[in-house]
Amino acid sequence: MKIIFHDDYKNSSYASDTAAAEGRMESIMDLLSKERGYPILKPVAAGIEDLLRAHTSEHIDRIRQDENLFRMALLSAGGAISAVEIAFDGEPAFACIRPPGHHASRDSRWGFCYFNNMGVALLKLRSKGRIKGAFVLDFDAHTGDGNIDVLSEYPEIKILNPFADDRNAYIEKIEKTLNKIKGIDIIAASAGFDSYEKDLGKKLKRFDFYLIGRLLKKFSKRLCNGRRFAILEGGYYLKDLGKNVLAFCQGFAD
Known about the structure:
alpha/beta, Arginase, Chain A, seven-stranded parallel β-sheet, 43% helix
């Protein structure tokens, strides 16, 4: 499995929020970089034409007013594009990127998100005719309203933001939904680790992230020739964040 990462993602000066916290990327990459079989690839920034498939020009111009933030957001969207392209070519990928994106809508942003990384990535491949149908699992503790806004006009792209009272029902909801999915070309995850029992969501254990990764691997092989990728969204309990991401990747990888 490929890991998408750029050293510039370590920059914590682009914003003053919890997603931009110093040490957040290091908590993940210090572990992933030591794993065998997880080569790290450096992405390039997304182009304006990539953003325009998911956002209005007015929204892009508003983000552009902050040069440092704009550069980081472009690089993050570029990381998502790298992941989807690698996945389409047959190898799973995890994009360890920031800023996150699942709260960024076509013409607005909130929740530490600026461009909709998932939308930018999927719509680029769709514009090339490489994919039509997709399934997006957003397991962040917060509903990915930006993903819904950007992708809802494409009925072939299905999105699940699971809700359940406990961790077992949560995993069961994901599996039941995947059992009903058909006619897709790729599986994607907006991978938010703030659903962790010690983070904001206060629900999932570390092993649950492994199970989610394993389910996505299993169904991607059944439904779309193994094509799957994930991009980082939330996750703020830095003491365990890297361990949780690694657990997911271990389930998600071949």
